[in-house]
Amino acid sequence: xxxxxxxxxxxPTGINNALKEFCRNARGDIIRMTTLAGSGHPGGSMSSxxxxxxxxxxxxxxxxxxxxxxxxxxVVSHGHTSPGVYATLGRLDFFDLEQVVxxxxxxxxxxxxxxxxxxxxxxxxxxxxxxxxxxxxGMALADRSNGIKNHTWIITGDGEHQKGQIAEARRFxxxxxxxxxxxxxxxxxxxxxxxxxxxxxxxxAAEYRADGWDVTEVDGHSIPDLYRVLRxxxxxAAPRLIMAMTVMENDSRYHGxxxxxxxxxxxxxxxxxxxxxxxxxxxxxxxxxxTEDFQLRLPYRILDSxxxxxxxxxxxxxxxxxxxxxxxxxxxxxxTDNLPMxxxxxxxxxxxxKQFGIEYPDHFFQSGIMEHxxxxxxxxxxxxxxxxxxxxxxxxxxxxxxxxxxxxDINMTNLKVVATHCGLDVGMDxxxxxxxxxxxxxxxxxxxxxxxxxxPNQTDRVIRYSATHPGNFFIAMGRSKLPVITDENGEPFFGxxxxxxxxxxxxxxxxxxxxxxxxxxxxxxxxxxxxxxxxSNISAAVYAVSCPLxxxxxxxxxxSGYRLVLTLEDHDRDTGMGSKKGDYTVRSFG
Amino acid sequence: xxxxxxxxxxxPTGINNALKEFCRNARGDIIRMTTLAGSGHPGGSMSSxxxxxxxxxxxxxxxxxxxxxxxxxxVVSHGHTSPGVYATLGRLDFFDLEQVVxxxxxxxxxxxxxxxxxxxxxxxxxxxxxxxxxxxxGMALADRSNGIKNHTWIITGDGEHQKGQIAEARRFxxxxxxxxxxxxxxxxxxxxxxxxxxxxxxxxAAEYRADGWDVTEVDGHSIPDLYRVLRxxxxxAAPRLIMAMTVMENDSRYHGxxxxxxxxxxxxxxxxxxxxxxxxxxxxxxxxxxTEDFQLRLPYRILDSxxxxxxxxxxxxxxxxxxxxxxxxxxxxxxTDNLPMxxxxxxxxxxxxKQFGIEYPDHFFQSGIMEHxxxxxxxxxxxxxxxxxxxxxxxxxxxxxxxxxxxxDINMTNLKVVATHCGLDVGMDxxxxxxxxxxxxxxxxxxxxxxxxxxPNQTDRVIRYSATHPGNFFIAMGRSKLPVITDENGEPFFGxxxxxxxxxxxxxxxxxxxxxxxxxxxxxxxxxxxxxxxxSNISAAVYAVSCPLxxxxxxxxxxSGYRLVLTLEDHDRDTGMGSKKGDYTVRSFG
Lengths: 590, 590
Hints:
The structure is a homodimer.
Chain A: H1 13-37, H2 42-47, H3 49-58, E1 73-76, H4 82-91, H5 97-103, H6 132-145, E2 152-157, H7 165-175, E3 181-187, E4 190-191, E5 194-195, H8 196-199, H9 204-210, E6 214-219, H10 223-230, E7 240-245, H11 261-271, H12 277-286, E8 317-318, H13 320-333, E9 341-344, H14 348-351, H15 354-359, E10 364-366, H16 371-382, E11 388-393, H17 394-400, H18 402-410, E12 415-420, H19 438-443, E13 448-451, H20 456-467, E14 472-476, E15 482-483, E16 506-509, E17 514-518, H21 522-535, E18 540-544, H22 553-559, E19 564-568
Parallel strand pairs in A: 1-2, 2-3, 3-7, 6-7, 9-10, 9-11, 11-12, 12-14, 13-14, 17-18, 17-19
Antiparallel strand pairs in A: 4-5, 8-15, 16-18
Helix pairs in contact in A: 1-3, 1-4, 1-5, 1-11, 3-4, 3-10, 6-16, 7-16, 13-20, 16-18
């Protein structure tokens, strides 16, 4: 089938006919996959099929080079339609379709129940509904920042549109003028418990119009009509919403339930396809492992230059967030060809990204009080060839957006989260603003390097490290101005030849009686405590732990030599650094 | 000032005049509180002031009995307007205003930077924006279930309306016909970083209209106009949105910044009020502790009858979620005067609340794919004199809604969360649906009893326990059908005279060489492992831990007597039961 790249005004007849046949066969694949697996979501897979087939066959994507630079982006947000997506991609030679049929939903297969970013052709792992539009927006923003002229289609469910994050994403896209985005809603009118309009009526078109989108309704099974509305405009005045009116075969039960072999047999007859289920079942039984075994390809951008570390003198008194802001500015000045993207949620002054916004307005994205969308959009941008920072208060950067980080984590994004105002050090705002659980939250993820720098010098080094190393970072800091940590000669401990390495702890002062192990701002308190203990002839060692999720066995061995070990952290004791056991798995990344 | 209960069509002149004077003085209080504290949010406090003063002075609320049954509900969602709320409530004798001025934002004061539910007159602790409408909706729903005829006003910010959860709450209220809700938006047009329409344009009125609300615009500083639109209608056809157009004094900087004493002096002069800041500063300096010290009053409803436990025979094979569904039905039949409320997010068939929905449709709330709103609304309902269950898959019940539980936790709600499909036992859905971190997440909260029952019998007892005990419960279970756990005589271990007690572990089998400590579905695997070890002449004891956040020192002592202790859990090892140390704080509740 020829790839038109949507150049003709209307779909050529030959391609239309080929796609019709393609979909007829792909419907058979969907039934085979789900009936053989005995589970899965055939309903939505069928209703979205013409959209999938048209986009992946006609857009600027390449089965031989799925990560091609400048490609169009096709993001599927309702990830449970994996059978439809896999049938489409398999038939377009992104991978071997037979392997999908033989292993779909089997343990160890790359073809899981919800689509995965490791599979060629798939931009984003989804399944947890409501986040695909945000991530697609982030990718489109990153592509624009990289000077790429392409189109992003984001395909979603109608039931999914009940989720609030979509309202945020819609406003974000409109505000940032991402008019090369088309959101497609598969309006099959059914969700697991019944009719979408009865479960939770949502006037999707009216809501998008209220936010300034261009809304078009189309027959979601008519390939020529779909072609016409999905074709990118040259100069769109607004982002576009396509309401694709579709029919979910059978009833809402088949939203999330496979057909029985008997039902499948009838469906094959209707489609005019052979019923080869028994033969395939045997193949499936003996296929222990898919021959397709994809590694998540990580086209991570890092900054080329870490710039020149800023050294804060021994008599400097400052807060870590200002040191972050200064390091960010220095990184930007030293990487003008590859400027980082910086996201803010209405707190730029407090989190110290304001100056960056003034000097680099095209790379600063004011995202309003919409943390969910921002965490996901920033994550999406970070896997689209940009270095991305998002700075926010700890409660918003960790607690409020925990589930967005979970999806970022699964997607192995490349996001640098700077969480300021962590701990009780947020000040007098009260309980709702106390972030005292971030170590535990980030500790349940697998790919978020978590760092709590001790002072402005270490903050400066850590920020530069995160920007020049791949992967997600969560860098936590307080609000207060505190003295610089010094060595025994009174020189800045984290200055001069000091280099930050992930997982390394710092032995700030020697001592023989007691060890004080402190984190972040509390290293300063540890130093004060040490002085007080000296007055009582107690010799206290001070250790600074900046990577509480990666405490080395070496440190624990060393600590076992002291009579008493005291931990100091601005965090809940039961879930923080002090609660970590010796055998806590080292979770590092990159 | 007379309390009209909004009976007259228009506000009586005397009350209008009194309220004008009231607001003039309260503006002085706001300046005093924030300038003395050197922080806080005077801007929004001032712009919302007439709304606060009118509602708390005229609605059916009682300073002498703030928890009066059948009262109107006034929920403030933009909790940073605490100075305005406290000035209003103090001047209406809900508490001593002087104590607020003397201790606002001081460590140990009940008057924190964001409003707290412990303070008389306040329904909900807020500050984390975007959740107040959901919680107010839950309260209105509980009141309706309790046959109360009242009105609920929810006051919000305009910047706050950028948050996606509000879109969910809006649809939920409309669907459930909660037409006695009025949402008021303080449209002062400013947020921390500048003008709301520039930060993130949101056409609030159009969005609400799209979802079927009745929208009215009003001058938010005109007390007679506000009275007219805030007055409850007799038979409203839809919930109402009031766009209160207000002016934020000074500029957006004063959204979140106090005036200096000099600026305050000028403001007092403009208001015709005395500048007594110096004198108050002295009082504040020497007031170590507020004489007002409120305990959170907990009008918790529990079910009167725990019904009759259902006993599953030794040869029964079933899943815990079906046992939950059956226990729920039995509880309902035995508490017809006090039926629990049950919330669902489009998964009733899988989480086994479908039958309850069929038999008790007025107490079953299908909330669609809107987990954020549901978690908060269910939390709100649970502190409005109802027993409330919300059942959902683990990833939605824990990960997706973590931050909603955090606010519930701070509010010490009374919610029973039943998390099904936890662990890898969710089956073949893949990574986005694996909830393997719930122990760690719930462990960062302070008032969520977390229980992982071992089999259908224990599930039955646990569900009854949660419904007849106050406080939040998080009850986690898998998906699979598994055998019943038996005692050494082959009788059901959790049947007969067994009674569940929070924090108690169960010693299922004695053994001398090895101890296997298992949780939930894995207790069955522990039993199988024990059999296998017996073949090699290894004697293994089996312990079942159902309360992983409350492991007793006694159990740990006992375990220290074995040469080897093996933990088995369908959870991430590093953050689950097996990671808990001996001195882990017992976090129980109720």
